[in-house]
Amino acid sequence: MPKIDLDSIEQVSRTGYPPPFDRQVQGRWYRRLAPASGLTAFGVSHVVLKPGAWSSQRHWHAGEDEFLVMVSGEGVLVDDQGEHILRPGDCAAFPMNDGNGHHVQNRSEEDCAFIVVGSGTNTGGDYPDIDMSFTSEGFVHKDGRPY
Amino acid sequence: MPKIDLDSIEQVSRTGYPPPFDRQVQGRWYRRLAPASGLTAFGVSHVVLKPGAWSSQRHWHAGEDEFLVMVSGEGVLVDDQGEHILRPGDCAAFPMNDGNGHHVQNRSEEDCAFIVVGSGTNTGGDYPDIDMSFTSEGFVHKDGRPY
Questions:
Q1: Nearest to residue A37, comparing CAs of A1, A69, A68?
Q2: Is the Cβ–Cβ distance between A140 and A147 less than 8 Å?
Q3: Percentage of chain B modeled with pLDDT above 70
Q4: Residue B55 pairs with which residues in a beta bridge?
Q5: Which residues in chain B come in under a pLDDT of 70?
Q6: Which has the closest alpha carbon to B106: B47, B22, B66?
Q7: For residues B134 and A113, what is the distance between their CA atoms, to the nearest angstrom?
Q8: Contact assessment for residue B31 and residue B21, using Cβ atoms and an 8 Å cutoff
Q9: Taking CA atoms, what residue in A is nearest to B68?
Q10: Which of A22, A144, B67, B136 has the most Cβ atoms closer than 10 angstroms to its Cβ?
Q11: Residues A3-20: pLDDT tens digits?
Q12: Residue B3, SS3?
């Protein structure tokens, strides 16, 4: 059935971030919707941020487009242009290789949730605020040493 | 700025459907978000259905994945398995070539709105309820004659 039963899909808070960068995403709970529903042309995640949680470290992708739509609660999108409140129905787009580091923070006292879609080739990208970049091989220091 | 100003993007109710199949989508108002925001890896539309409007004729794509998330109001997803109410936050996925004709109807007395993402190759598909199919060349009768 194409309507997705979200409760039937495992919700996880895993991250591959090395410490201490994993701390801010411990309250990020996500479900991978594409494998569960048979989609192969793009990825889709349903993400819940607990109060205080971040969606990721602020980052941009060299080879992947991302699109986000808020579905409940309130988040704060932080990017190179500043801070932007996201409420249900608000959308944001991050074209590949734009160099504009972005993430969503939940600064409220309630959960917030969004859908994020991504597609492209994992050719890496950068985290402008911290000593970490990402490559198709994994996380590295800015000087190239692997984590 | 990656947060999208929806009001700045033209909202249209165009359709290429030949009469009489255009009638049910006259209250469908959509914005194409990808060209406006620089995304190229997939398409994204913000769609508002006025009371009584349909998202499309019931259809499926041979070569394109689709994903939908409801953002406001209430719609009725109709597919081969029956009818499913969609409320804000509800999601649906339509893998390419699944042969499961689907669309959303607004049977309520208020507008409803959703985001739909699509990606893949336009190799056509079918409208199971009517004498129309679609090809990469356009709309045809079931016997192949073009509209």
A1: A1
A2: yes
A3: 99
A4: none
A5: 1
A6: B47
A7: 36
A8: no
A9: A3
A10: B67
A11: 999 999 999 999 999 999
A12: strand
Q: Contact at 8 Å (CB) between B30 and B9?
A: no
Q: Does B147 touch chain A (CB under 8 A)?
A: no
Would you give the distance in Å from CA A128 to the centre of its chain? 15
| Mutation for testing the B interface, residue in A8, A40, A71 having most B CBs under 10 Å | A71
Tell me which chain B residues have a C-beta less than 8 angstroms from the C-beta of A113: 89
Burial of A99 (0-12, 13-18, 19+ CB in 10 A): exposed
- Residues of chain A short of pLDDT 50, as ranges, are none
The ipTM of this complex is 0.95
Widest distance between CA atoms in chain B: 48
Residues of B in contact with A37 (CB under 8 A): 67, 93, 95
Inform me whether the C-beta atom of residue B7 falls under 8 Å from chain A C-beta atoms: no
pTM higher than the cut 0.90? yes
Best of B42, B58, B60, B67 to mutate (most A CBs within 10 Å, chain A): B67
Tell me the C-alpha distance between A51 and A82, whole Å: 20
Amino acid occupying residue A22: D
The reply to whether A8 touches chain B by the CB within 8 Å rule is no
Instruction: Identify the pLDDT of residue A1.
Output: 52
H helices of B57-112, where? Answer: none
At residue B1, the pLDDT reads: 52
Contact in structure between B79 and B60 (CB atoms under 8 Å): no
Q: Is B76 on the interface with A (CB under 8 A)?
A: no
Whole-Å CA distances, B45 to A21, A69, A115, A126: 34, 11, 14, 28
| CB atoms A119 and B119 under 8 Å | yes
Q: Are A114 and A29 in contact (CB under 8 A)?
A: no
